[in-house]
Amino acid sequence: MVPGQRLIETDLAACFQVGRNAVREAMQKLAARGVVDLSPHRSPAIRRLDPDETFEVLDVASALTGLAARTAAIHFDAQRHDTPLRAAMDMLDEAQRVDEAAMFSQARRRFYRALLTIGGNRELQRIFPAIGMHIIYAQYQTRQLRGIRVADYRAIAEAVVGSNPEGAAEAGHAHVEHVRRVIIEALERSGSMVHPERKAQGEGS
Amino acid sequence: MVPGQRLIETDLAACFQVGRNAVREAMQKLAARGVVDLSPHRSPAIRRLDPDETFEVLDVASALTGLAARTAAIHFDAQRHDTPLRAAMDMLDEAQRVDEAAMFSQARRRFYRALLTIGGNRELQRIFPAIGMHIIYAQYQTRQLRGIRVADYRAIAEAVVGSNPEGAAEAGHAHVEHVRRVIIEALERSGSMVHPERKAQGEGS
DNA sequence: AGAACAGTATTGTGGAACAATAAAGGGGGC
DNA sequence: GCCCCCTTTATTGTTCCACAATACTGTTCT
Questions:
Q1: For residue B147, is pLDDT > 70?
Q2: With bands split at pLDDT 50, 70 and 90, how would you rate the model's confidence at B205?
Q3: Which of A76, A97, B59, B152 has the fewest Cβ atoms within 10 Å of its own Cβ atom?
Q4: Where are the alpha helices (DSSP H) in chain A?
Q5: Distance of CA B47 to the CA centre of its chain
Q6: Rounded mean pLDDT of B77-83?
Q7: Are the C-beta atoms of A18 and B15 separated by less than 8 Å?
Q8: Cβ A54 vs Cβ A136: under 8 Å
């Protein structure tokens, strides 16, 4: 599954033993989540982010991650929320220890799900998975990024359990900025950088 | 078209002279934009926001409207962007003058489209229409709200043409807060308010 | 009145057919 | 040899039909 790859619906239908109809609906759901690009009369292609669009995604992610973290910190209730959050963190640690990418992805999803559940904002729960963050995770999957993420997630979690909304929001913004910096460095190394210094356009700290 | 109304796909197919399939795909697109609620084995219902969820939508809207305004202010170029933005503002004025709801909706959409175009953030262009703001506009359509909106939009536009990112973001946040206040008052009048004081959970000023 | 039950309405899904469009390949003209 | 146009092919867009699975409704029995 490489970015830009085209998915022919007849093939998928045959492959999964389902009707073309189901394939089309699945594609629409994936398009809504930003996984595939859908243009009329063309096969759906799994989404590819050029450097510019990558940073655009990060700007949106910064805004909504900050909101998610802040909202979770406001609504955190140790009684109900401590266990699931701690479970997510433990799984992140475990995934990093055994160094398995698939398990790490699962743990990351669990962490964000916990964050969104704690916050309780249904609209955010609906919108958040539509951000192209998944694509970034998949496209720039490095061990370095995983380490940074675990540390950042811990900072967010601590601010949340400490019921510190502004700290949580800031930790969320900081996390996205860390990801941005790592990607900038990776792009500079590979020389595919068009705008050498691309600054964040979200709330400065 | 009243909130909660159920849409039977057979009826719609017959009504619009299209196949059930097309209706289903259209429903999925509407669900992605947050217009209808879609639960398995049940007819799609046009989305209804209870007071709580209304405020949750506003929290998300505040974050993304702020980002949209800030990004537009950063990328504003008088040469290319002055004309479309001014056209949108003129249409808003005209719509308010003749006091037509349909025209006002169209003008509002145009304003946001201009904002998103100026900013140039493709991910934001993709995500923004998915916010349930439409539903709020439809559900709380009052003359008072229209007036507030025109004033707020003007403030945003001025900050944008002045290339003042922080001012634009603040104007965006302020706009959403104004809408929030009007809705709180409306709910208090109608007595359907559960949590009497529901504070914004986005960035304070 | 309340609960189990049958019948109906509606969605979920597969399959076939055809039109419409886009991509690819081939044949002429320069 | 290279480019343009045309034909051919592959793929999507859409409709129709059929049937299974599920939710809704109304009725009957206790």
A1: yes
A2: very low
A3: A97
A4: 9-16, 20-32, 51-75, 78-98, 101-119, 122-127, 133-139, 143-161, 165-190
A5: 14
A6: 96
A7: no
A8: yes
Cβ contacts of B44 within 8 Å, gap of 6 or more: B6, B7, B9, B27, B30, B31, B36, B37, B38
Distance from residue B7 (CA) to nucleotide D30 (C1'), in Å? 38
Residue of A nearest to B202 (CA): A67
Which ranges of chain A have pLDDT less than 50? 204-205
Q: Any chain B CB within 8 A of the CB of A57?
A: yes
Between chains, do A121 and B21 touch, taking CB under 8 Å as contact?
no
Which pTM does this prediction carry? 0.93
What's the CA–C1' distance between A132 and D1, in Å?
Answer: 47
| Cα(B25)–Cα(B109) distance, integer angstroms | 23
Return all residues near B11 (Cβ < 8 A) that are at least 6 apart: none
Say which residue the tokens 């061990």 belong to: A143
Distance of residue A175 Cα from the nearest chain B Cα, in angstroms: 17
Closest approach of chain A CAs to the CA of B106, in angstroms? Answer: 24
Mutation site for B-interface testing, chosen from A56, A118, A123, A176 by largest number of B Cβ within 10 Å? A123
